[in-house]
TrEMBL record:
Residue spans crossing the bilayer: none
Assigned GO CC terms: sperm flagellum
SUPFAM superfamilies membership: Quinoprotein alcohol dehydrogenase-like, WD40 repeat-like
Species name: Cyprinus carpio carpio
Swiss-Prot/TrEMBL keywords: Cell projection, Repeat, WD repeat
Ranges for the WD repeats: 275-316
UniProt-listed Gene3D superfamilies: YVTN repeat-like/Quinoprotein amine dehydrogenase
Cellular compartment(s): Cell projection, Cilium
Protein name, as recorded: Cilia- and flagella-associated protein 251
Lineage: Eukaryota, Metazoa, Chordata, Craniata, Vertebrata
């Protein structure tokens, strides 16, 4: 979707793209698409204000579709699309309020919009979620958020340049939960719902079996294996009918709204999580100091460590109950990963396994942790929470190294913009500095600070009108040691690391 959008058709076995359709919907990208059963034709629907449905013969070299039609905006955004598996000239799509049936003949594409509302059957219809054709290619079903199934039947035979007309003939209350996925496999009609349950019905919409013990999020899609199950019914669970026959079904993969893909072995009734990605946008990223690894955290509470050389996930963890991850950082040795949460909690985990002891979780504030930084010797960890700096120190208890609270100080009257450790050139002892929106640069007295509080060594106002945004140690290219800052007025300044005097300034 968006500008310069495209469609890529891949070879599923080699992972190589075999055809790319560039800017096929310049009005906003692609909202939905589907392949015909013989895979010769591809249908796409645009995401613009006026949606356009295009049918492509993607196996030839043509850059234009075989046919196309613009849809009226009054039918809503069509976000589900499907070929009739028994007749490539018929298609169905739906928005949350309207089902459209298409007929494609001799390069001409037309559609019909049969009426369907709560008044059609004097029952609550619900939002439309997905539509399919039944095995005879004539009947069609549409699932709704009220747990209903709308049955469509052909009303008349198509005549010259007129699409096939279908009519809603029945509304079947199938279940109480909202249906999110509707598909067919073998002789079964399959639904997925908002409770994460997968249900199988026969052609008369009678319940045959249900998978409800997997504790899944709302189902987004279901895909069945192309391999048919073995003839032997050994090992298969019984169905839900009075006859309790073995329920023989293909293995399947399903995805959920929380970015999880799960494989289900139907014979053993065992789910296997194939993929679990971030549900919310990434809020925190940190690179490992010594290995080709990058850790990514999001507000969904997930941290995933990615090997960017081998292009694979190394480990992941979902953090509960604090959940919303705001910032993360590795220590310089690469042994620890500090995780700051929007709840104010701070957790220190093993960088390799992402596991931690309950004692390694600290919670000294209700505000979000915005910055985390380790000292060069990995003995100190500092956290910025709004206008306050909190310091932790690694201590030895018996044979174990544990992190302990050292102190905190409300050192700024506006939010902290950056937090930085350094090294004193004379004593090689760590230094800690914070930079706030209040334009003050504060250095802390680590040597004399204890549990009574974090002491301030010096405090300097470094700007008059500009608001500093970040700081970093200038590379040691000269005998004089500098601190480099940037501001919202696109200026950079060099300060003497000891006296905090400005030595050079430049506008960008």
């Amino acid at each position: 979707m968006g500008q310069e959008s495209l469609v890529i058709i891949w070879d599923a076995y080699t992972g190589i793209p075999v055809r790319t359709l560039f800017d096929c919907h310049p009005e906003g990208g692609v909202s939905a698409m589907a392949l015909s059963k013989d895979s010769k034709y591809l249908v796409t629907v645009g995401a613009g204000a006026v949606q356009r449905v295009c049918i492509w013969n993607w196996t030839d070299e043509s850059e234009s579709p075989e046919c196309q039609v613009d849809l009226s905006p009054k039918y809503g955004c069509q976000n589900q699309l499907l070929f009739n598996p028994f007749d490539n000239t018929q298609l169905v799509s739906n928005s949350s309020t309207q089902v459209l049936f298409y007929n494609w003949e001799r390069g001409h594409l037309e559609y019909s919009a049969p009426e369907i509302t709560d008044k059609t059957f004097n029952m609550v219809l619900g939002s439309l979620s997905q539509s399919i054709f039944y095995y005879d290619g004539v009947l069609a079903f549409t699932a709704t958020s009220a747990g209903n199934i709308v049955l469509w039947d052909k009303q008349t035979q198509s005549v010259s340049r007129q699409p096939v007309v279908r009519k809603a003939v029945k509304l079947v209350p199938l279940q109480e939960e909202a249906i999110t996925v509707l598909t067919l496999i073998d002789s079964f009609i399959v639904t997925g719902d908002v409770n994460g349950h997968i249900k199988f019905y026969d052609g008369n919409l009678k319940l045959i079996n249900v998978y409800n013990e997997f504790s899944l999020d709302p189902i987004k899609s279901i895909s069945f294996s192309k391999e048919k199950p073995s003839i032997s019914d050994l090992g298969y669970s019984k169905d839900c009918t009075l006859d309790a026959k073995p329920f023989v079904i293909r293995n399947f993969v399903l995805s959920t709204t929380h970015a999880t893909a799960v494989h289900v072995n139907a014979q053993r009734n065992v789910p296997q999580t194939l993929l679990k990605e971030h549900v919310e946008p990434l809020e925190a990223v940190a690179c490992h100091p010594k290995q080709p690894l990058v850790a990514m955290g999001s507000h969904s509470g997930t941290i995933k460590v990615w090997d960017y050389e081998h292009k694979e996930a190394v480990c992941s963890r979902v953090f509960l109950p604090h959940k919303q991850i705001q910032c993360i950082t590795y220590d310089p040795q690469g042994f620890y990963l500090a995780v700051g949460f929007a709840s104010g909690a701070l957790q220190i985990v093993d960088a390799c396994t992402l596991q931690s002891d309950d004692k390694e979780c600290f919670h000294y504030s209700q505000d979000s942790i915005t910055h985390l930084t380790f000292s060069q010797d990995s003995r100190y960890l500092a956290a910025a929470v709004s206008r306050t700096v909190t310091l932790l120190r690694q201590c030895k208890e018996g044979t174990q190294e544990v992190w302990k609270y050292q102190g905190r100080h409300h050192s700024h009257y506006k939010p902290i913009q950056d937090l930085l450790f350094g090294v004193d050139l004379d004593s090689s002892q760590p230094r800690l500095l914070s930079l706030g929106m209040d334009r003050w640069l504060v250095e802390y007295d680590l040597q004399n600070s204890g549990e009574d509080g974090l002491l301030i060594l010096s405090s300097e106002r470094i700007e008059q009108s500009a608001v500093p945004t970040c700081m970093v140690w200038y590379p040691p290219l000269t005998p004089e040691h500098f601190l480099l800052t940037a501001s919202n007025l696109y200026k950079m300044k060099l300060f003497n690391a000891t006296s905090k005097m400005c030595r050079f300034a430049v506008s960008l």
